[in-house]
């Protein structure tokens, strides 16, 4: 134990001496390193910088489907083999209202949980576990 303390003291002393000797060398003054005569600041014009004018594309609406081209080139479900049809129709339900109702129920459940967490946070009930109280 005593050996570790002595080694730590020696290490601190070596680091202290090394830091003290960092500024002893001769070098250039900071004023001579960069010559401020060549000032290449760019004027602010208020116009956006576009490196290749004409190549801009407007942002695509993420909720619109991609264009597939001509309708006659689109694949139909009848064009697929029976195995491919099984894969393509996996999870498709004949009753879309049932799927929408399931999503709506899940959203209501998440909203109820969020409302409960918000109320517990505003009443500071979320800190009861750290106090030893089981909610």
Strand-helix topology:
Blueprint (H helix, E strand, L loop, with lengths): L1 H19 L9 H4 L48 H7 L7 H27 L5 H4 L4
Note down, in words, how this protein is organized.
- The chain is an all-alpha fold and 135 residues long.
- 45% of the residues lie in helices and 0% in strands.
- It has helices at residues 2-20, 30-33, 82-88, 96-122, 128-131.
- The model has no long low-confidence stretch (mean pLDDT 78).
What's the short story on this structure?
With 135 residues, the protein is mostly helical.
Quaternary structure classification: single chain
Question: Termini, distance in Å?
Answer: 47 Å
Strand segment count: 0
Give the rounded overall mean pLDDT.
Answer: 78
What fraction, in percent, of the residue positions are helical? 40-55%
Rg (CA only): 35 Å
- The low-confidence runs, each spanning 5 or more residues with pLDDT under 50, are none
Q: Structural class, please?
A: mainly alpha
Biggest pleated-sheet summary? none
Query: Which percent range describes the beta-strand content?
Result: under 5%
Shape by Cα distribution: extended
Individual helix count: 5
Give, in order, the helices and strands.
HHHHH
């Amino acid at each position: 134990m005593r050996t570790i303390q002595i080694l730590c003291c020696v290490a601190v002393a070596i680091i202290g001496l090394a830091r003290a000797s960092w500024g002893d060398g001769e070098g250039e003054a900071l004023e001579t390193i960069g010559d401020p005569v060549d000032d290449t600041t760019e004027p602010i014009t208020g116009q956006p910088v576009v490196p290749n004018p004409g190549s801009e594309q407007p942002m695509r609406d993420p909720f619109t489907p991609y264009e597939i081209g001509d309708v006659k080139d689109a694949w139909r479900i009848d064009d697929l083999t029976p195995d491919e049809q099984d894969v393509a129709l996996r999870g498709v339900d004949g009753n879309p209202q049932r799927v929408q109702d399931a999503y709506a129920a899940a959203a209501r459940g998440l909203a109820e949980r969020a409302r409960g967490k918000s109320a517990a946070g505003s009443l500071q009930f979320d800190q009861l576990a750290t106090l030893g109280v089981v909610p």
